[in-house]
Write a structure and sequence with these properties.
Order of helices and strands: HEEEEEEEEEHE
Radius of gyration: 18 Å
Shape: globular
Number of helices: 2
Mean pLDDT: 91
Largest sheet: 5 strands, antiparallel
Strand order of the largest sheet: 8-6-5-9-10
Strand content: 25-35%
Length: about 180
């Protein structure tokens, strides 16, 4: 009976934690879950002719203990064997709840002080829009906001997406995602 009571208490605690984490959401006025990206979020180069403008992003209800955020944008459908990193941003202050459209410009001027945009698979910092190969089925672009248990990731500005991803694996306490698609 004691084990059953302990198991029940543990199950309730875990479900309460999961419910709180599910309140952590990521949204955008520029795109919808499962919807298609507009020309504004398409890369300018590699045969694509978009505006290469990062979408506005908003988030709510980060979990207790959040000390900063990181944002990644990843295309798992890129024909590389390892996907494609389109945006890698970290050291976003825990007090922030949004990034404006265009915040991913390479100069980073629209980002809060101290925020780092690391190197993407385009080889440069900042947002790199969608640009799948012509004729491919629409690719998925997964925007993931990581709530972190640390105020900052101590990484160089040109850290690879893999290095940032390793550190995110060590410090993420919750994630909120928004996935959009694009094909040409």
């Amino acid at each position: 009976m004691r084990i059953t009571l302990l198991s029940t208490c543990l199950a309730l605690l875990l479900s309460a934690s999961a419910a709180l984490a599910s309140d952590f959401t990521l949204s955008s006025p520029d795109m919808t879950e499962g919807g298609m990206l507009s020309a504004a979020q398409v890369y300018k180069g590699f045969g694509c002719d978009g505006d290469n403008r990062s979408p506005a992003l908003n988030w709510t209800t980060p979990p207790a203990g959040t000390r900063s955020f990181a944002l990644t944008v990843y295309d798992p459908d890129a024909p590389t064997g390892s996907g494609w990193w389109h945006w890698v941003v970290f050291n976003i202050p825990a007090t922030e709840r949004a990034l404006p459209a265009g915040a991913g410009a390479a100069d980073g001027k629209a980002l809060p002080a101290g925020v780092v945009q690391s190197r993407t698979d385009f080889g440069t910092p900042g947002f790199g829009g969608a640009c799948p190969p012509s004729g491919d089925a629409a690719h998925r672009y997964i925007f993931t906001l990581h709530a972190l248990d640390t105020e900052r990731l101590d990484l160089p500005q040109d850290a690879s997406a893999a290095m940032v991803g390793f550190m995110l694996g060590q410090h993420t306490i919750a994630k909120a995602t928004l996935t959009a698609r694009y094909g040409r």
